[in-house]
Amino acid sequence: MYDRPAMPAPVHPAADGQAPARVAPALAVSHLTKRFGDRTAFEDVSFEVAPGEVFGFLGPNGAGKTTTVRTVGTLIAPTSGSAVVAGIPLSPANGDAIRQRISIMPENPGLYLRLTVRENLELFAGLYGLRSPRVRLDAAIEAVNMTGRSGDLCGRLSKGLRQRVGLARALLNDPEVMFLDEPTSGLDPVAAREVHGLITGLRERGVTVFLTTHRLEEAERLCDHVAILNTQLRLVGRPDELRVNLFRRSLVVETAVPLAQPEAVFTSEAGVDGWTLDAAATYVLRVGDPRTAAPRVTRALVGAGADVLSISESRHSLEDVYLRLIQEDPEAQPK
Amino acid sequence: MSIDVGRLLALARKEVREYRRTPFVVGAMAVLPIVFMIAPLITIFAIGPSAPAAPVGKAVGSTFLFLLIVPAVIPATIAAYSVVGEREQGTLEPLLTTPVRREEILLGKALAAIVPAVTVAYVLFALVEICAALFAGNPTVSTTLREGPHILAEALFVPLLAMWSIGVGTGISARSSDVRVAQQLGTLASVPPLAATFLVSYQIIPPSLWAAIGFGLGLLVLDIAMWRVVAAMFDRERLITGSRAQGVAVSGGGAPPGQVRRIRAIGGDGGG
């Protein structure tokens, strides 16, 4: 029921004013499937991520988000399908080359707790074969505001600071695509906000970020596009587009006291397709265009002698989209 | 197989730093060798000046056996921790997301374990030789300890036994989900090659140049075979998910980026 025309590939205008040139996606996944024996982790997943965007990958626990990241991150082999990661086709032979161009931060940053922040990063700088490791290390540490703590043992850092070190590690190789798996899981609001700031900073630097999360407000705030997965891909789109396309537009009218004859007031107005009582004196009006319907409804209410407290367009969050999808699609129920 | 020395050294350096800050490893490296040195020294010093050749040979044999237990057992416990320990800490997955090859991980970990184990074993052997020369009541003890075949056997068997222990310990660690089980099995699996040293040490097979070389070559073949098996077991998917990769090799080129079909895409002007 949510099928929509396929979203076109990103296009950027050509410099010479001719036909716009298509920019190759940073990540293109086509019909990718992963099975473990007779258990399907994810199936027939296809999407594209444009360079420099933050792409949210949402879904309930067990939906296959982490397995998808591991698969396109070359840690596990897909059962079928294909993908192009950072411009390189996903294949066993290309594993090393892909890993050189991407970075993955798992849900648990996985730091060596007996090593200092700098020692942790030195190891990964060595593994990536960085030519000027000291410069890159300093830059990565500075990017996550850990300059004063680089000599601390990671075991003595708070969870929020460990996430920062994990992000610094993910920045070391200057990745084209960065996969962040639940980067704010278990963090308090302040620490989560810091991570959000770091992700915003990554976007400003042009890094493509693939963000798996089940914090919908996080996805809504940070992501250019989101996909909702539950073994199969359910939706792909911009958060605002998802809201507009999934929910009919509506006005919320609040009056001081309940209307004596709401049916007479609302149904007489063109542009109001129907209404429901949301609370004692709060009405939700289904409308085609809130901008033209709102003045008419206001006039009708004033004409009927109603004491109007507020008239506003109903706002739906990404959470509303997600919950509606879960409720309406039996296959999308949490497992 | 191309090995990047920089990656190898980065891994080995990390391992050594972790060892230094892990009391269990420091203890295993320091205490066990001392125990295995004191026991044979007591045996050697207990031999009287006029003791016949047979008990002297037996004492020297047991000394060699004790000294060869050190390179076999010490790295086994460390190696058995190496992979399952990383998995328990959650550090294995980030490590595997880098371009490091499995051979480099194995060799880096092996290098960090074999260098201290072999060094400790050689130092112990030197100390026993010095103590025997200076303090042994029976001069035959010292001369027997310095016989060419014995020294050659010690020189060859120490690194080969350590290689075996590290390899088999790493292999067990890669397949294990519990550190304690891995360490027990790793220690147990490090013992069988000591049979060869037992035969030479107790002169069941008389110690000679060719016996030392022969057993050395045998251990080398075993080591190479075992390392091949361990390298094959060291599969990224298996290490992360616990099961062997069942996927097919995905098509090299995949679909052209522009032709990737979107599923239930919403919106029309998206950029990704």
Secondary structure elements and pairings:
The complex is a heterodimer of chains A (335) and B (272).
Chain A: E1 11-12, E2 21-22, E3 27-36, E4 39-49, E5 54-58, H1 65-72, E6 80-85, E7 88-89, H2 95-101, E8 102-105, H3 117-127, H4 133-143, H5 159-171, E9 177-181, H6 189-204, E10 208-213, H7 216-222, E11 225-230, E12 232-237, H8 239-246, E13 250-255, H9 262-267, E14 272-279, E15 282-287, H10 290-303, E16 308-313, H11 318-328
Helix pairs in contact in A: 3-4, 4-5, 5-6, 8-11
Chain B: H1 5-20, H2 23-45, H3 53-89, H4 92-96, H5 102-135, H6 139-145, H7 148-175, H8 179-189, H9 194-201, H10 209-233, H11 236-241, E1 265-266
Helix pairs in contact in B: 1-5, 2-3, 2-5, 3-5, 3-6, 3-7, 3-8, 3-9, 5-7, 7-8, 7-10
Describe this structure in words.
The complex is a heterodimer of chains A (335) and B (272). Chain A has 335 residues and is of the alpha/beta class. Chain A is built from eleven helices and 16 strands. A six-stranded mixed β-sheet of chain A has the order 8-9-10-5-11-12, with helices on both faces. Chain A has a four-stranded antiparallel β-sheet with strand order 4-3-6-7, covered by helices on one side. Chain A is elongated and about 75 Å long. The relative contact order of chain A is 0.13. Chain B is an all-alpha fold and 272 residues long. Chain B is 74% helix and 1% strand. Chain B has eleven helices and one strand. In chain B, helix 2 packs antiparallel against helix 3, helix 7 runs antiparallel to helix 8 and helix 7 runs parallel beside helix 10. At the A-B interface, strand 3, strand 4, strand 6, helix 2 and strand 8 of A face helix 1, helix 4, helix 11 and strand 1 of B. Strand 12 of chain A pairs parallel with strand 1 of chain B.
